[in-house]
Amino acid sequence: MPSRSSLVRHAFGVLFLFAGAAGAVPVPSAPQLPARSYVLYDYNTGQVLAAKDPDAPHPPASLTKIMTAYVAFDALKKGDLKLDEEVLISRDAWRTGGSRSFIDPGKPVPVEVLIHGVLTQSGNDATLALAEHMAGTEAAFVDLMNAQAKRLGLTHTHFVNAHGLPADDHYSSALDMARLAAATIRDFPDYYPWYSLKSFTWNNITQPNRNRLLFWDKNVDGLKTGFTDAAGYCLVASRKADDMRLIAVILGSASERTRFQEAQALFNWGFRFYETHRLYPAGEKRTDAPVFGGQEQAVPLGLAEDLYVTVPRGKYDQLAASVEVAPRLMAPVAKGSVQGTLRVKLGDEVLIERPLVALADVGEGNFIRRAIDALRLWWQE
Question: Does 90 participate in catalysis according to the annotation?
Answer without folding.
Answer: no
